[in-house]
Design brief:
This protein has 15 helices and no strands. By secondary structure, the chain is mostly helical. The protein has one domain. Helix 5 packs across helix 7, helix 5 runs antiparallel to helix 8 and helix 12 crosses helix 15. It is globular, with a radius of gyration of 19 Å.
Length: 276
Amino acid sequence: MGWWGTALGGAFGFLLGGPLGALLGAALGRRFDKGIDRIGLLGADPGDQERVQTAFFTATFAVMGHLAKVDGQITKDEIRLAESVMARMQLGADMRRTAIRLFDEGKAPDFDLDAVLDQFRRECRGRRHLLQMFIEIQLHACYADGAIHAEEDRVLRHICDRLGFSAREFAHLEALVRAARTFTGAGAGAGAGSWGARPGAPPSRDRLADAYQVLGVGRAATDAEIKTAYRRLMNQHHPDKLVAKGLPEEMIALATEKTQEIKAAYETVKAARGTR
């Protein structure tokens, strides 16, 4: 039984309690938050893949809803971004309804962001690439209306800090996401226009510069350094590896789009340099 089958089957409460269990329980109309008291009886270890997948799914949509609310109003672009993520995940009707309800739970005035983030970090047990994927999704969500507003920036920085990412690491991830959005808006091939980029988005004024930024290297980098950066990023975002670490299988399409984006950036840089 997959993680979603476990949740619907009623055993979820024995796998995950706390704030995340309470959130998903509310979204499903059940009370699971007491279930953590019986984890030991079932032998479910923290970090179990099914458990981490459940935590990732729950935290992703609840925090996305919270961020959509922090700047005072939820825009159509932010709603469309959330719907776009759900569509790319090809969620079934039940899961889609649950994702929407989690989004709504995140908008609630009493949403406890810190408690959710603290539990999510514990469940991931140091899986940095998984936590980074989570942050990238939230960054794309905040960029849905074209810009990150001051209050969104403050909360995003707080999220990163709570998940163990430094201010420098946040600035790096934000720059990568910003470059990726303009790069894919220029028509980067398969997967272009992902993450809810607006239809007909204007091409980047310097697509090559964006490609370098997506790879996390400067124009002065050697061919060997660029290849190393490319291989490192492809390894970090490999869909199968992320799923093995706890990314819900339904989110594999998002990871695949990311690898397509990285590959397109690499091909753009190679073509500009005339290398193979």
